[in-house]
Protein: Site-specific integrase
Amino acid sequence: MPRLTNKPRRRKDGRFEVRLTLRENGVPVQVSVYGKTAAEAERKARDLKTRAERGQFTRDRSTTAGYARLWLERKGKEVRPRTAELYRLELGYALPSLQDPEAPDPLGSRPLQEVKPAHIREVLDGLMGRYSLRTVKMVRQRLWQVFRDALDMELVFRNPVDPVRIKTPRGQSKAGRALEPHEIAALLSALDQHKDPRTALALRLMLACGLRRGECLGLQWGDLDLEGGTLTVTRAWTDDGKRGVLTLPKTLTSARTVPIPHATLERLKTYHLWYTERLGEPKPGSWLLPGNDPSKPLNPHAPNWALKRLTERLGIPPLRVHDLRHSYGSHMLANGAPLELVAERMGHANPNITLGVYRHVLEHERRGWILDPEDLLGPRAKA
Structure:
């Protein structure tokens, strides 16, 4: 049994590591092996050293882009099609060969085990200014996931993305933008005059009920209770980068029933008349917002296109469709709604998610809660 010169050391993640210096084609190289226990790490190290002494040791020479492709293939079986396509798009910013095999790809062509934090920093710095801060942060997150997977598979001995941080510039908001009251008024007025009642209703429902885009487009007439003034989310209509896809809601708590505000309920009743004149009385399984082919919902990108044109015409700073939902949550909290209620209405998995997204609103509200003991005494008697 080969002897080990290095003893296992415990890492911050709880695993044990043994570092070895072996020879590959006559060249000394340092490798690490890991185990849940010190004994497991030692056993793996001895096995590897035995193979090296027999000339059977070769390191994995996978390129970063090659391993990222394998990771994307596995993720494609675990997440929704639209999410998988977003992962590919985000990684493609850092690893261009994922999108175009002929594109120059300095990081992607580098062997996985040779990537250092400086290489990650160089790529992310190159993206800053060309893309939004949020996009660059998502690219970093995807790279971290790829290298974390390689670390778990013992293909690398550390994650080179860990030390690389992206800080939000001073004065720049981390959260989505909530519309100001005057912007909401202008947008709602424009929606009432919009030439396409379907996209107008979609944008209104996202703003008035806090729906995600996919949840809104996935509504059927049977999900509405116009008498009771509620709607129920049970599905989502998204796209996988090529076509529309019907899926379950994002999380278990995303399936929910939410109240419809009175003004929006009145628009829904008017929309019902418009729909009936063109397509006949809707059935419970009919799409609330049908596309040009009524057997399918509206194009998932239609609300984005409509909102972009509206904000440009109204002079409102650029908005994402998701900012309509963000505005709903922000104004609910700003008007005193309990955190748990807002989390429930928005379909968040737990209130901690709501707290993380809307912390800035809550901090502002907390500063307004001041108790003056004098107020407890009631009106003062006149002298």
Summary: The beta strands are 9-10, 16-24, 27-35, 224-225, 230-233, 236-239, 244-247, 256-259. The first strand starts at residue 9 and ends at 10. The mean pLDDT is 84.
